[in-house]
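note to self: the first set is below, dont mix up w the second
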Amino acid sequence: MSSAAMNKTDGGNNAFHNFNNDFAHIQDPNERRRLALAEIDKASFGWYHIFAINLVTSMLGIVYFNDKKSHGTIPPSSDTAIKVSTSGGTVIGQLGFGYLADVVGRKRMYGLELIIIIFATLAQALTSNSRAISITGLIIFWRVLMGIGIGGDYPLSSVITSEFATTKWRGAMMNAVFAMQGIGQFTAAILALIVTTGFKGSLESAANARACTAVCQLAVDKMWRIIIGFGAVPGCIALYYRLTIPETPRYTFDVARDVEKAGTDVKAYMNGKAEGHPDEIARVTAMAQTAPALEIPKASFKDFCHHYGQWKHGKVLLGTAGSWFFLDVAFYGLGLNNSIILAAIGWTGGATQYEIFRKNAIGNLILVCAGAIPGYWVSVTTIDTLGRKTIQIMGFIILTILFCIIGFAYHQLSGHALLALYVLAQFFFKFGPNSTTFIVPGECFPTRYRSTSHGFSAASGKVGAIIAQVVFGPLRTRGALPNAKGRNASPWLNHIMQIFALFMLCGLFTSFLIPETKRKTLEELAGEVPGTPNFDPALIGGAHRAYSEEDSQGEKHRGVDSV
């Protein structure tokens, strides 16, 4: 019986489409793999939590630090520790989930990280102070755990979208996923405004944080719990879909090395079904027959070191990780301290605590709506025409110029000019490296290491975010007087902007190490397609060695039989 006949399963294509038989006549498993993956390219077309804490820390100060020493303001050390804790957990999640998604599969990990986020979010909302442990310590613990879940979401969301998307619109689809970060920022700010308005009567009883006691303090305690706890709502809605998502065909092909299952999954995906169901006997037989002939190397630590030990591959990982690191130093240094920028331009203060909270929420809404959200969606609409590398390089150049202007002309700029420059910076973060650093690592690495490499790149970025908070947070207030207001409260802010300009310039240089991934298949970017610039002959060589060994063993068996 021929191999094609063995690969076929019973069932006609008229009454019920048999996905398995579409490629059963092709004996070469590598060709069957390429044709099946080509079908995908013919198809039609947790960040709330990170930024919500920016609005919550001032509320925590009123509830838990309203004493003679702190006067309703959270100590800088506690403020920094709470913000950094999420990034610390995110690093762990990005590295851990990134690796596990390559080892056990995308499907098994996708959803688990969301369960962690939901659990940790609800735990934070129910946290309270005690004599045994401070509220700061408890919140840090739960935010580290939540950060682990958020970290897992980075490589999984990017890689799963990348491996399911058609080549033509892959960038737009991945960018649309990442643009939810802007929606998360917007939701956090709008919810803060809603709860502030809801507790208006209680908040108006106090002139400032120090005077916010009794009824006002109780209202603020409820407010921060609502803002944090609300983050679990969209997670619960999305959980079902994540737990029922099928495994990506590319992972099934290249890592699980199950050509039959992957082929049926592709055809099922094209027909709007969750997954394919091949004949199990044919599937097991095919796996045994095709495994030695598959060109794609099996993932291992030795192969990982060999792959990235080559400069043509190693430089790409260096480019994605380096660009993300330099970006996040400035991005999170500003993003988690929007209130500092608002204070510098005079958008703070008020006659009552209600006005103070209201101004802070509206100010954050202005920054998000004017710069962040438009930047994300301009990027979505242009990413597949301008290209990832072009947008990233352009973004770093413009950000370098903007930070130089803010840093060196800080004291000469009016409040409106400073706001305009800051909004422009937010726009070109999103229509620039903040989007592309998420997208490119999900495309340019081979399937067997795609999630691990994306996780490593993203973790490099979060290390930059930690540095921004730990180093530049205290540096910002250097030389400030105890009761300083507005720009005087952050006398070193101009120097920090100058340093950020240097980081943007470094990000520009590392951007030249990454490839342009626009309109290229993932297989072409991984070096598996002969005749393309990225083609890696070692892959074909491995396949030839596998065929040669199989043929030589066959000759030996035939020789023994003839004797």
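second set (the one i keep forgetting abt)
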Amino acid sequence: MTMDYYNARRIPSFYSPASSPLESPLHGVVPSLQLLENKKQLCHRLIDGQLPNMPVGFPFHHVMDAYGNPRLSHDPFEFWERLDFNSRCSGHLSACISFTPAARDSDYSKREYFSWCVTMAKLDLRPFTRGPPPKAPVAHVRVDPEVMRSSYGRRIESDPNIILRALSTSLELGLLVTIMFEENTSGAGNWSKYRNVVFVGTANNGRRSILFNAGSFRIR
């Protein structure tokens, strides 16, 4: 089923992944209402692209070559965004958006992905604790390297909104979002130069569903 990914009405559930740490003996707990408000705030920023610290070239980033010219890099990076909050506690809450490239020398049987992850540093409720506060993963988007080698991969490189809005969907629904080629069960299109790109959501229980069909794109 094809959905209008950019105009579809989504119900903001803001589920936390089951692996998210909710408390720590050193750093206390973020109030649940505050955490919900921060997730909503971050979701709106992702949809609107209002991330002041987002690097040029996102979802990748630009670096300078030996001649001082910018080039697109697929090396790992991360950046932080400070979030507003209403709390009696001192300090601030931040979200970290990080990128990890697919391993080039990995065994093909163990597929590696381009990966974007959002984590939130928990609010420190105690004034004299040591060490950084723990991070809680709240959104995760993966892209199959085969998709990056297709014409849709060029679109991902040039349009930051694709990954940003996929992250917002992951954050709202509490799903791992994987951008991949649609599985061909009939085998009729194995030799086609075009394949459908789909956004697949995976829940904590392993259940998968197609969230969005981006359409058919040429394989490089």
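remember for set 2: The first helix runs from residue 32 to 48.
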